[in-house]
Amino acid sequence: MALTKMSDLRQLSDQEVGDRIVAIKKELFDLRFKKATRQEVKPHQFKHLRHELAQLLTLENERRRSGGHD
């Protein structure tokens, strides 16, 4: 699983960006829960999800500041 590119995320609508942010936050919670209960977790998943979350939050902030577009 390669890191997501910002150019790919810019093609998403505002609604899709918001939905993806919520989904990633849930995935991160589930990963932390699995780690805490000593279930098998691939450590690189944390990095990939946090990276994509940061990109999505940046994109959302850019759109909010520029008046947004869809």
Residue-averaged pLDDT:
93
- The SSE string, one letter per element, is HHH
Broad structural category = mainly alpha
Rg over alpha carbons: 14 Å
Number of separate strands? 0
Tally of individual helices:
3
Low-confidence stretches: none
The helix content, as a percent range, equals over 70%
Global outline: elongated
For the largest beta-sheet, the strand count, sense and barrel status come to: none
First CA to last CA: what distance? 27 Å
Strand content: under 5%
Topology:
Blueprint: H1 6-9, H2 14-36, H3 44-65
Helix pairs in contact: 2-3
Task: Using brief descriptors, characterize the structure shown.
3 helices, 70 residues, mainly alpha
General description of the model:
The radius of gyration is 14 Å and the shape is elongated. Helix 2 packs antiparallel against helix 3. The chain contains three helices and no strands. It is mainly α and 70 residues long.
Give a concise summary.
With 70 residues, the chain is mainly α. It is built from three helices and no strands.
